[in-house]
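Re-running Lipoprotein to confirm reproducibility after the cluster update. Everything else is unchanged from the original entry.
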Amino acid sequence: MKRIFLLFIAVPFFSQAELSASSYYNCIKDNVAKYSKTNESAESIASASVTSCGNVLGEVLKSSAPFMNASAEAKSKFIADMKAQGKEAGIKYAMDEKLNNK
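Result of re-run:
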């Protein structure tokens, strides 16, 4: 019975974390669509999109209890990793946009 109760507590927590992370990537994707009209390189578009979504990333991280309880060094590494992953995703989204606009 305890396991079932813990499952009901854990599932919404993980669902919320996934929803938050997806909101960061959706922000990047939306900005890529906007910036892809500038004819800049995919890397430039991705960088601008990641920068534009910094506030969304901040909100995602503030809602994460493990992040808030981490050391300053761990927080810095995690932020850098999230930005790097966001840039990689942004480059892919930008390349997809370029193909769709041809």
